[in-house]
Amino acid sequence: MFSIEAPSYDEVGLVIRAAIEGNLGSVHRSVNDLAGQAALAAT
């Protein structure tokens, strides 16, 4: 399990906002950033 910090909630908000706006490029980038953070936290 990995912990979620306050900035991560902000990132999730950006992903949701970008998805609503249809900006798939930003969604893809944000998802990759979150995946990278999760990978670092898992190590």
UniProtKB/TrEMBL annotation:
Superkingdom in the source lineage: Bacteria
Protein's name according to its UniProt entry: Uncharacterized protein
